[in-house]
Structure formats: C-alpha cells, structure tokens
Amino acid sequence: MAPAPDPQPTDTFASLTRDDVQQLVLYFGVHLPPAIGNTADDRAHRDNAALAQVAAMRPANAEEMRLAARYVAAGAQADDQLRQVQLHAANYDRTRQINAQYALMVRTSGGARSLLLRVQTARRRLELDAAACAQGAVLAAAGLLAWLLETRAALGGRIEAATEAVAEAAAAEAAKVAAAAEAKAAATAEAASRGAQRPAWPAPLPEPPPLSEEEQQREKWLIAADRFATVYPMRARLIRRFGKLPDDCGIEPPEPELLEAIRTGDGYSLRWADALTPAEANVNAGNDRHLCKYEEAGEAAVPEPVASG
Q1: What dihedral do alpha carbons 166, 168, 169, 174 form, nearest 10°?
Q2: Which of 9, 73, 269, 278 keeps 20 to 30 A from 213, CA to CA?
Q3: pLDDT on residue 141
Q4: Which residue, among 57, 152, 167, has the nearest Cα to 114 in the 3D structure?
Q5: What residue ranges do the domains of the chain occupy?
Q6: Comparing C-alpha atoms, which of 57, 84, 88 is closest to residue 73?
Q7: Is the dihedral of CA 155, 158, 161, 162 positive or negative?
C-alpha cells in the first residue's frame, strides 16, 4: 500500500494583493526614522530589515500586515529614541522627555504585536489541517519576504522622491520658524529702540520751602482744632458761628490759640461740624446737647462775637 502523500503547503498570504504590499513598502519608506548614514543604500537596508520583521510575523491578510507594520514601526521609533538619548545626554529635561517617549513607543509596539498574535490565533483555529498550516506558514513567510523585497527594489525611486519631498517640507517649516523668530527679534529690538528714544520724565518739582517757626505753630493749632471739632462738634459750631462759647454754658473756653484756629481753620472736621443739620447736630452733640439751645436762640444768646485776629 502506497504511503499517503505529504500535505501540500497552503498559500497563507494568497489574500494579500499587490496594492497591500506596495502600501506597506511605501509606509516604511516614508515613516520610519532616518537611517544611519541617510543615503539611498542606507534607507534600502533599513526598509529591508523592517520588511524582514514583518515577514517573520507571517501575516496572512491585509489586517495582519497592518498590525505587523505598526509593531515594527513603533519598535523602530523606540530604537530611535534611544539614539536621541545619547545625543542629548547633557540635557536632563530633554532626556527625560525622550525616555518617556521611548517607553510609550515600547508599549505601543508591544500592544500591536499582542493584538496581531491574538488575531492570528483566531484565524489559525479556523484551519482544519494544523500540520499543513504549520508547514505552509514557514514556506509562506519565505515567499512573502521575497515578494516584499522585490517590491521594495521596484519602488526605490518613488520612496526616494517621497523622502526628498518630506525633507523639503521640513526645511520649509524650519525656515518659516526661523523667519518668525527673526521677525520677533526685530520687533523686540525696535520696541527697545523706541523705549530708548522716549523722552525722559520731567524733573520732580522742587521741595517747598520749610515752614517758619510761626507757621509750624499755626499748623499744629489747626490740626488740634480739627480734632477738637471731631470730639466736640457743637462747641466748634458755636465758636465758628459766634466767635466764642456762651459765658453761662458752664464749659471752660479753649486756649486763645486753639480758639483762633477753630474760628479760622478749614479742616475736614470743622467743615463737617458747620454742615450738620440741627437734627444731626443734636444727635452728635453727646454731653454737649444742652448747647443746642444757644444755637436755636441765635446771636442774642451770645453777648458779642470775638473780633477776628
């Protein structure tokens, strides 16, 4: 009896189209970090290594290929962050930012790989012949890698053109930023120049001449008169109206200097006492409320005003 023939390998990437492969190659050609050396050959080696990683993941359809591409691209970004750490080792803040970006890219890459493995596991469970699936997967990975590398070689010109376009756009953006910075610096310099040309502030007014001894004494009595009106508004009202306190009011008259300052002063409390209505004067009189009768009686209650000095 003849032995059973070996199962034929299945074409596990038969559902991939040429458009899927071309998009993957162009995706790596434009979006991967710059290659060391940054020549056309260096970029080709970089892309070929990334395509080999995708083929090693054995994607069988467009969805699995996209997940594999994300896994490889995020890992490449993480590797580029490690390179930048060495470039900015002296800058602590920048190094901390780069390390945070590196950790993010590592998590992103691992997440894409985990999702890809779950998707592939679900697909393989649908395969009826596990042995044929395993054997075919090895052959398919080799065939897919050859297809990817062939496509990369064919699209080399388009990838170089796209790389040059990205570099030109980056240079234009850098020139725009530099022009904006230069304009800002010029505006700052112009504002500083206008500030330097601004006329100086006028000289302060000269200090008033010092008061004579007599004027100083007069100022002290005026201050005392204003305080007197605050405490005794009714007394201040009568003094300013009649020149003195009534002789029979039972209140000792103030000193002559203070009396003169009350009569002739113009302080706030003196003017406030003058402006009180009779009702307000009665409310603010306090213990001097009995003086209200002299104000109501008028000038007849006071013999004769004291002549102004």
Answers
A1: 120
A2: 269
A3: 64
A4: 57
A5: 18-175, 213-301
A6: 57
A7: negative
b/e per residue 183-222 (b: at least 16 CB within 10 A):
eeeeeeeeeeeeeeeeeeeeeeeeeeeeeeeeeeebeebb
24 burial (CB, 10 Å; 0-12 / 13-18 / 19+) is: buried
Query: How far is Cα 221 from Cα 35, in angstroms, rounded to an integer?
Result: 92
Closest CA relative to residue 31, chosen from 16, 52, 46: 46
Residue 253 has phi, psi (to 5 degrees) of -70, 155
**DSSP of the chain:** -PPPPPPPPP-TTTT--HHHHHHHHHHHHHHSPPPTT-SHHHHHHHHHHHHHHHHHT---SHHHHHHHHHHHHHHHHHHHHHHHHHHTTT-HHHHHHHHHHHHHHHHHHHHHHHHHHHHHHHHHTT-S-HHHHHHHHHHHHHHHHHHHHHHHHHTHHHHHHHHHHHHHHHHHHHHHHHHHHHHHHHHHHHHHHHHHHSPPPPPPPPPPPPPPHHHHHHHHHHHHHHHHHHH-HHHHHHHHHHSS--TTSS-PPPPHHHHHHHHH---HHHHHHHH--HHHHHHH-GGGGGGHHHHHHGGGGSS-PPPP-
Per-10-residue mean pLDDT, the chain, length 309: 39 67 81 82 85 85 84 86 81 85 86 82 67 55 75 80 77 84 84 68 80 88 91 89 84 89 89 86 83 69 46
Token digits for 119?
């998707």
**What residues contact residue 242 under an 8 Å CB cut-off, 6+ apart?**
299, 302, 305
